[in-house]
Amino acid sequence: MLRKTPKLILPIILGLSGLQAHAMDADPYMTEEHLLNKAVQVHVTTRGMKYFDSELAKILGNLGVNIDEGYFPALSYTFEKPINPDDFAKDNPEEVKMYKQVRELLTKWLVGFSLNDHRPTIEIGESGYIAKFSRFSLVTDQKLMEKLGKREGAILAIELEIKHLTLGTNSVKVWDINNEFLGKVGAEEVSLSAGDAKNPLKVRLPFYLRMNAYGALEFEALDVENNLDSIPVSLQYKKLLVPQFAIEINGKKFLLNNKEIDKLFTEQAPAILESVRKNLGDFARNQLPAMLNEKAKEFLKGNLDQVQNMVPPGKEPNDTRPDFKWGLRLQNIGLKESLNIELGAYAEDPVNPRSLPRPEDKSRGAVTWGLIPQAKYDIGLSLDRGLINRILQLSFERRNFEKIAMSDGSTLRMMASPLIDYVKAPVAMPIKDSETWVKLRVAVENKPDSIFLKEKIVVEFDIIAKLRQMADKTGMQLVLYSIDPDSMAMDDKYFSIAGKLLKGKVRDGIKDKLREQCAGWKSKEEAIPGAFPLPPEILGIKLDINRVLMDPKGHLVMYLNYANAGAK
Fold first, then answer.
1. Within a 13 Å sphere around the CA of 427, how many CA atoms are in the beta-carbon half?
2. In sequence order, what DSSP letters do the residues of 233-267 get, joined into one string?
3. What percent of the chain has pLDDT over 90?
4. What average pLDDT does the segment 379-400 reach?
5. Cβ count within 10 A of residue 392
6. pLDDT band at 453 (very low <50, low <70, confident <90, very high)
7. Biggest alpha carbon distance in the chain?
8. Which among 200, 197, 251, 247 has a CA at the least distance from the CA of 226?
9. How far apart (Å, rounded) are the C-alpha atoms in residues 58 and 64?
10. CA–CA distance, 399 with 472 (Å, rounded to integer)
11. By CB count within 10 A, which of 229, 316, 358, 487 is most buried?
12. What is the C-alpha to C-alpha distance for residues 435 and 432, in angstroms, rounded to an integer?
């Protein structure tokens, strides 16, 4: 019944290929959002998560991310509190004792000299890395959830195993903001290599995600695990940066020979590397989670929306009006047997900002899962019918569905937006796992040429159809099956004076006409031209339908497997 139907659902789904939700950009055409809560729900089963365990690098590659090499802008980090030497006395008693003696001696013997507690700043210039990964995975961690007593949200972890890693930077500089006269120390053109085939670098970065009471996503980096203390590490640099020291005797200055400092540094390289190794490990365990949490707070302010343009269904080539705007908003994330993600959704027309969604067009309750055991599919995906019907509503309000051509040459004039919904399966009609029954509620204008009816009438009825996967798996299409004559409704105002005396018979006659109109559908399997692009690609992963159905509450539910690579 609906020409150009292929465009009806695609815009709603394709947003899932960008599940890495980002902060919404300001948009001059964006109207007020009328959010449909939990319109899109995704759950990734334990079996499905195994794919992210083994194929995360491939997924990132599909999204244009090359993990084998990367670039980082310059950054700096200042210790939040001054360093208290006594904090290191337990592990380094001799060194701390000597430091205090030197500090005391300089303070006594040098007039005007004083040394405050140190508060270092570390500055790393533009940097890059080259890595040979043997493992790059994203996993869920139910056990850690239970250990930490987390009852909502989800804990995920990025796990890395790198056979060889080379880090390079323009410069590394350290200075003491509480004692700036000491100047800066560091090196230029520094490279650090870590790990080998026998002893690869291993890092595990767990993080906790939850939605707070204000609908904002909270991120908490947890304790980082690494084996930096047990892998081979080497350090190279081009130029050592040290302050210039001098001793003056009776006006004669004697400069410290920095070449000797460089020589001493080279001789002490093994001990320095050991210190670097330890400090890097401490940084990963302590400062890194704090830095990630701080950055996350900056990034995750407010709602996380993904907003895109959407071509209105039925749009003609010469239509110059701006496209619809639609968005997905992360509303909840949880981990219980599967990784569950709930997304609110909205669709708006910039040229029709007063359009309001109709509450009766949406689902009638929570989605029904459980048709298939989780061990037998990878991803579950549900769409609220309200989202699909909202798109149809906005297009109809643009009069895109005013006239629809049928394959027999007839034309239907639509008088209301078509509505998709659940319908009970016809009796004794077999159906494949890759198809489901739906109904379309339509209101059609007709010129009956009857003395019992007005010149023009509007008849409402349900079209029963299959939503079926196409043979080439490029999408799904609506295949017309029948018209339900018992669903026919018509306002009494369309009866003529004579018709009002025979309402029952006239209505029966209209039902007979509807039966005639759909008589050949079952044998011909007349399909609406085009296809719904279902299932979608998620993060660049193609998916195959395991089972699809429209549940009684009005959710299109799809049980999906990764195409040609389902996790086992």
1. 0
2. EEEE-SEEE-PPPEEEETTEEEE--HHHHHHHHHH
3. 31
4. 89
5. 25
6. very high
7. 128
8. 200
9. 10
10. 32
11. 487
12. 6
